[in-house]
TrEMBL record:
<dbReference type="InterPro" id="IPR023232">
    <property type="entry name" value="Glyco_hydro_2_AS"/>
</dbReference>
<dbReference type="InterPro" id="IPR023230">
    <property type="entry name" value="Glyco_hydro_2_CS"/>
</dbReference>
<dbReference type="InterPro" id="IPR006104">
    <property type="entry name" value="Glyco_hydro_2_N"/>
</dbReference>
<dbReference type="InterPro" id="IPR013783">
    <property type="entry name" value="Ig-like_fold"/>
</dbReference>
<keyword id="KW-0378">Hydrolase</keyword>
<keyword id="KW-0326">Glycosidase</keyword>
<dbReference type="Pfam" id="PF00703">
    <property type="entry name" value="Glyco_hydro_2"/>
</dbReference>
<dbReference type="InterPro" id="IPR036156">
    <property type="entry name" value="Beta-gal/glucu_dom_sf"/>
</dbReference>
<dbReference type="InterPro" id="IPR006103">
    <property type="entry name" value="Glyco_hydro_2_cat"/>
</dbReference>
<comment type="similarity">
    <text>Belongs to the glycosyl hydrolase 2 family.</text>
</comment>
<dbReference type="Pfam" id="PF02836">
    <property type="entry name" value="Glyco_hydro_2_C"/>
</dbReference>
<dbReference type="InterPro" id="IPR017853">
    <property type="entry name" value="GH"/>
</dbReference>
<dbReference type="InterPro" id="IPR006101">
    <property type="entry name" value="Glyco_hydro_2"/>
</dbReference>
<protein>
    <recommendedName>
        <fullName>Beta-glucuronidase</fullName>
        <ecNumber>3.2.1.31</ecNumber>
    </recommendedName>
</protein>
<dbReference type="InterPro" id="IPR008979">
    <property type="entry name" value="Galactose-bd-like_sf"/>
</dbReference>
<feature type="domain" description="Glycosyl hydrolases family 2 sugar binding">
    <location>
        <begin position="13"/>
        <end position="179"/>
    </location>
</feature>
<feature type="domain" description="Glycoside hydrolase family 2 immunoglobulin-like beta-sandwich">
    <location>
        <begin position="182"/>
        <end position="276"/>
    </location>
</feature>
């Protein structure tokens, strides 16, 4: 599924803006709101989550369907084309209606989908576009949840992840056209031999007519053609190629064209590509054959009012903060981020661990932290995470790889966050998912993010993966405030993982909740002083374990969580920055450490 773009053969119209908006209070089928203009005066911005935009508790706490609606005009110059509506994200289920006609449905809240509307609209004509969005989570969705129906008939959602279940159209919506015969997909794999860059490509098209052919050109950043080939599959060699490197991005442009028998251009589509290699060797993580050390964050798409709504101003500012502090990487915890974020990371040489929305597959975490469903229950069971859940999980992996496979910035797939990998049934669940991921993309290593209940002695799946990724909170959730005990136990566990598996270890989460402005002479938990001492302790351990190749702190910025848990006051406060991006005291400490790390690595731009 190619992201729409404007080219000499394709047109693109943004449908972002303010849409009519309404809750569906009964059933979607019974109310059938798409059959008429939405009543009422509510309007909602797109892109944005709707939960915090309005002041109504009924909207904020709504569980079920909502509808967005607007009028759309098809440009009158469009003809002999195929037309699509593209929804970048509808959290967690979306349905598209053109006038009174249902067109398509998509399940999964963080990946895009298209609705072909060719037969339903006309150039120069106007149509009513209605998008219904459902935020319900069940045991067979990714991420999972449980819905309780109260005696009043109101639905109450329980979910098993520690971030707010923002919903709506959080990313852009487009109307676009493509020619009748066009490029449908582009897959690029790169390699390096000595100083020669190798670009292997696979172009999928609609069925072509007699004499119609595919042509591929690779251009450098000066728009000079450095390689050409013909055919849907092939390999282009670029002598003296400039590699994409962390901190020093260089992007070529691969242009795929469909031409008629007489040479007429029928379609053209281009993809930005970075030539680089990724490899795991022993306990090293190698990019372009050189050891790489991850510095950075787990992040969230989260900001006040807009929730998970993509905002380019926040995006650019967040990357500025990462550059300032010396972060060379981040993880898309716990779902794929907007495609614009991946593009920006490509252009600026930021390394990304790309993660599916498979978070909350662990009843022990739910019962232990959130005092919810799960005590003495089995995670991998017909009643909770079952074969249907795994099928949804497989779909989320397919859609993640299909969307993001060509991004040079992505060096590692994470297929789940904190699953119950110490429970019987975990291996049967994950083994086929790992095989699926490798079959979809053999060029990148695969990981999952391990939670503290599954240690190196009792984990059942770690051998299936390429990298050990750990979330650990010694000194916060374990031995709270006792950093002496925490340091000893933390080091013992890291060394245990190294002895047992001999793989690279990345700390993908470690942190302590901190109330900005709270100071303490005694390093009291929740104070900025304790947060500094906590990280200093963790880093002493990191420096004593050579197999550790990365530290991504939790979290980049404070973020919103469910109000149902008393230990979360207006959100998770583990951010290095506040929710409005003000630095806590720890930011300067990390800046000094990571700047030295990057300098020691010979990172571009560091002196």
């Amino acid at each position: 599924m190619l992201r729409p773009q404007s080219t000499p053969t394709r047109d693109l119209v943004s449908l972002d803006g303010v849409w009519k908006f309404a809750l569906v209070k009964d059933s979607l089928e019974k109310e059938a709101p798409w059959t008429r203009p939405l009543s009422g005066c509510l309007e909602a911005p797109v892109p944005a989550s709707y939960n915090d935009v309005f002041l109504s508790p009924d909207i904020h706490n709504h569980v079920g369907w909502v509808c967005y609606q607007r009028r759309v005009v098809v440009p009158r110059g469009w003809s002999q084309e195929r037309y699509f509506v593209r929804i970048e994200a509808a959290t967690h289920k979306g349905r598209v209606y053109i006038n009174d006609t249902f067109v398509t449905e998509h399940v999964g809240g963080y990946t895009p989908f298209d609705a072909e509307v060719t037969e339903l609209v006309q150039p120069g004509g106007e149509f009513r576009l209605t998008i219904a969005v459902n935020n319900e989570l069940t045991n067979t969705t990714i991420p999972p949840g449980i819905i309780e129906v109260l005696a009043s008939g109101q639905k109450k959602q329980q979910y098993f992840h520690d971030f707010y279940n923002y919903a709506g159209l959080a990313r852009s919506v487009w109307l676009y056209s493509v020619p009748a015969r066009h490029v449908e997909d582009v897959t690029v794999l790169t390699d390096v031999q000595a100083t020669t860059g190798i670009v292997r490509y696979d172009i999928k098209t609609t069925e072509l007519g007699a004499g119609e052919t595919v042509h591929v050109t690779v251009q450098d950043e000066a728009d000079v053609a450095v390689g050409k080939a013909a055919g849907s599959h092939g390999e282009i060699h670029i002598d003296g190629a400039t590699l994409w490197q962390p901190g020093a991005a260089y992007l070529y442009r691969l242009c795929a064209q469909v031409r008629g028998a007489d040479g007429t251009l029928l379609d053209t589509y281009s993809v930005a590509i970075g030539i680089r290699t990724v490899q795991v060797r022993g306990t090293q993580f190698l990019i372009n054959g050189k050891p790489f050390f991850f510095t950075g964050f787990g992040k969230h798409e989260d900001s006040a009012i807009r929730g998970k709504g993509h905002d380019p101003a926040y995006m650019v500012h967040d990357f500025q903060l990462m550059d300032w502090i010396g972060a060379n990487s981040f993880r898309t915890s716990h779902y794929p981020y907007a495609e614009e974020v991946m593009d920006f990371a490509d252009r600026h040489g930021i390394v990304v661990i790309d993660e599916t929305p498979a978070v909350g597959l662990n009843l022990a975490v739910n019962s232990g932290f959130f005092e919810g469903v799960g005590k003495d229950a089995s995670t991998w069971s017909p009643e909770f995470i079952n074969d249907d859940t795994r099928a949804a999980h497989a779909d989320s992996i397919r859609e993640l790889v299909a969307r993001d496979k060509n991004h040079a910035c992505i060096v590692l797939w994470s297929i789940a966050n904190e699953p119950a990998t110490d429970e019987p049934g975990a291996r049967a669940y994950f083994e086929p998912l790992v095989a699926l991921t490798r079959s979809l993309d053999p060029s990148r290593p695969v990981a999952y993010i391990n939670v503290m209940f599954a240690n190196y002695k009792n984990d059942l799946v770690a051998d299936l993966f390429d990298v050990v990724c750990l979330n650990r909170y010694y000194g916060w959730y374990v031995h709270t405030g006792d950093l002496v005990k925490a340091e000893a136990q933390f080091e013992e566990e890291l060394r245990g993982w190294d002895r047992t598996y001999g793989k690279p270890i990345i700390m993908t989460e470690y942190g302590a909740d901190t109330l900005a402005g709270l100071r303490s002479f005694y390093d009291a938990p929740w104070s900025e002083d304790f947060q500094v001492s906590y990280y200093n302790m963790c880093h002493r351990v990191h420096d004593r374990v050579p197999a550790l190749v990365g530290e991504q702190v939790w979290n980049f910025a404070d973020f919103q969580t469910s109000a149902a848990h008393v230990f979360r006051v207006d959100g998770n406060k583990k951010g290095i920055f506040t929710r409005d991006r003000k630095p806590k005291a720890i930011a300067a400490v990390l800046k000094a450490r990571w700047s030295q790390k990057l300098q020691d690595m010979g990172y571009p731009g560091m002196k």
